[in-house]
Automatic annotation (TrEMBL):
Pfam family, one: Sulfatase
Keywords: Hydrolase
Record-linked Gene3D superfamilies: Alkaline Phosphatase, subunit A
InterPro entries recorded: Alkaline_phosphatase_core_sf, STM4013-like, Sulfatase, Sulfatase_N
Alphabetical list of NCBIfam families matching this protein: fam_STM4013 (NF038075)
Family: Belongs to the sulfatase family.
Ranges where the Sulfatase N-terminal domain occurs: 76-245
Keyword Hydrolase included in the entry's annotation: yes
Superkingdom of the organism of origin: Bacteria
Name of the molecule in the record: Membrane protein
Length: 262
């Protein structure tokens, strides 16, 4: 387990959610540049089956749980009585959410939205971005745009460039490319499928790596990359998410530290 308690105040924190990405799709994807930062995806179970609920859980410390028996200590956690998954190295905070906790400790907190729950166009779409000091979204970052990842990473890189070296940063990015419709990323297929979602992820890889390399040059950061839930493409008659199918609950997860030197 990473000692996140010791990292707070010295490390930036990146959280990247690959919206709707299935574990089996991530496992098959060809991601040679991203895999330089972590060796393999870990199979985990999401705390929720759709974006809004999953991110509320994530921001309070309930990241996807390892898909194996046992009590698994958490990296960070909002304090509450009876918690059985905190550890001496867990960053435990009094605030309700991680963005609020890091802001209270001097971090600049930035949300770069993707899917509709982050678009700020409705009261519901303002709830999750409202947890951050600063939030960004434009239609170019939405789920229907083939170049959404480029637009999101462009904003993220601008945030890094303007960030003072001695100012810590919490950067959250909700990647929209892996959310349906993903057939827009495939040259032949016209319907969403595991194959089109894989194409979307592979298309996004170079842009994600560009962001990680920029942070690597800036300084140390804890990086968490995960999916919020999966997507059913007709398995046993199920389509979409917000349902209790194995392909929806099972997600890829990775964590690493970058920019810390040799």
């Amino acid at each position: 387990m990473l000692n996140v308690r010791a990292m707070i105040g010295t490390h930036d924190v990146f959280m990247i959610t690959l919206d709707s990405l299935r574990f089996d799709v991530a496992e098959k994807a060809q991601l040679p540049h991203l895999k330089k930062h972590f060796s393999a995806w870990e199979k985990r179970h999401s705390p929720a089956s759709f974006t809004y609920a999953a991110h509320h859980a994530f921001f309070s410390g309930f990241l996807p749980t390892p898909a194996r028996p046992g009590r698994h200590p958490r990296l960070f956690a909002a304090r509450f009585q009876g918690s059985e998954t905190t550890h001496p190295e867990t960053f435990v905070f009094e605030e309700a959410t991680l963005p609020e906790a890091l802001a209270a400790r001097g971090y600049r907190t930035v949300c770069i939205g993707g899917v509709g729950f982050f678009n700020q166009e409705t009261p519901l779409g303002q709830v999750l971005p409202g947890l951050f000091q600063e939030s960004h979204w434009s239609r170019d970052m939405g789920v229907t745009r083939r170049h959404s990842t480029q637009a999101q990473i462009r904003v993220a890189l601008n945030v890094l460039r303007e960030q003072p070296a001695d100012q810590r940063l919490f950067l959250f990015l909700n990647l929209s490319a892996t959310h349906r419709p993903t057939h827009i990323f495939h040259p032949e297929l016209q319907q969403d499928s595991a194959e089109t979602q894989q194409a979307a992820l592979e298309q996004a890889e170079n842009h994600l790596v560009e962001l990680l390399e920029a942070q690597d040059a800036r300084g140390p950061a804890l990086v968490i990359i995960t999916s919020d839930h999966g997507e059913a493409f007709g398995e046993e008659g199920f389509h979409g998410h917000r349902l209790g199918h194995e392909v929806v609950w099972t997600v890829p997860y990775a964590e690493c530290v970058i920019g810390a030197g040799p």
